[in-house]
């Protein structure tokens, strides 16, 4: 409870958290949450992990489609993103994203102990989803990954650039690397304009220290992938210039999972769920179909 008379904690946009759905993470930071609750009895829980520099608002359409299928969808803005507290698009340890995700998932599981749980993640959110599922390999019925950050693009992360980033991280960790040109993120100009105009997105350059955390997460995933055995769906565009599709192919080829599917979108850019309308619709259909097909049949007790 806040100290009596203390000023209310406010979001970076100045809104008191007492007026916003939120959780408080293990470091005492307020994380803004969104919930999409079906009217009737939910069939499953779905946690959505957004990517770097964005927030969970742009997943509303996806969440609404899942809610229409009686799934209870929930998400939060990661530390340093959107309406959550924390230094903008920076983190001292990537593990914080995973710890906070597990905290939110555990909260929702405590409210709905009998429901199966899925995770959906895009880009860095895909890395968070993978590493979260690796920490709790038996907890998730399935993981859906949209252009996940599994492998660095060798053009953007050449050995020289990686070496320089490691060197600079010791000397000037707050130095920013080049930011991503949004036109390479989607072929739909309206989506790019909306992304650029969204003030809840981070539009600055990526700090070296943050890039190092992403690289460390990539290295951790490379170690984890050969032991992955949970079901997953991979969706990736072969024209993705940010997260190399070879990472998704490597995960599909090298994981132990027997229940796995990869769908490649020819010409698809990074943000498949915000790419051309026909691609975005296909992604939503693939994702909703895969999830509903993976909801376990009701146990005899539930069926009564
Ligand atoms: O998670 C990410 C993201 C951002 C920058 C990254 N840089 C790397 C490399 C950098 C070098 C070291 C190794 C890692 O990986 C990244 C992932 N992103 C990009 C964000 N998405 C959000 C949705 N997008 C979108 N949405 C609507 C319209 C257009 N784009 C595309 C960008 C999420």
Describe this protein's structure.
- Mean pLDDT is 93; it is low at 299-304.
- The protein is α/β, with parallel strands linked by helices and 304 residues long.
- The protein has helices spanning 60-67, 95-111, 124-135, 159-171, 189-197, 208-224, 245-254, 277-293, 300-303; strands at residues 22-24, 30-36, 44-49, 71-76, 117-122, 142-146, 176-177, 206-207, 232-237, 260-265.
- The longest helix has 17 residues, at 95-111.
- The strands form 2 sheets. The protein has an 8-stranded mixed β-sheet, with helices on both faces. A two-stranded antiparallel ribbon has the order 7-8.
- 39% of the residues are buried.
- Helix 2 (95-111) crosses helix 3, helix 3 (124-135) crosses helix 6 and helix 4 (159-171) crosses helix 6 (208-224).
- Bound molecules: the ligand O=C(c1ccc2nc(C3CCCCC3)oc2c1)N1CC(N2CCN(c3ncccn3)CC2)C1.
- The ligand O=C(c1ccc2nc(C3CCCCC3)oc2c1)N1CC(N2CCN(c3ncccn3)CC2)C1 binds at residues 51-54, 123-124, 149, 152, 156-157, 180, 182, 185-186, 191-192, 195, 211, 214-215, 242-243, 270-271, 274.
Ordered list of secondary-structure elements with their pairings:
Elements: E1 22-24, E2 30-36, E3 44-49, H1 60-67, E4 71-76, H2 95-111, E5 117-122, H3 124-135, E6 142-146, H4 159-171, E7 176-177, H5 189-197, E8 206-207, H6 208-224, E9 232-237, H7 245-254, E10 260-265, H8 277-293, H9 300-303
Helix pairs in contact: 2-3, 3-6, 4-6
Ligand ZYH binds at residues 51-54, 123-124, 149, 152, 156-157, 180, 182, 185-186, 191-192, 195, 211, 214-215, 242-243, 270-271, 274.
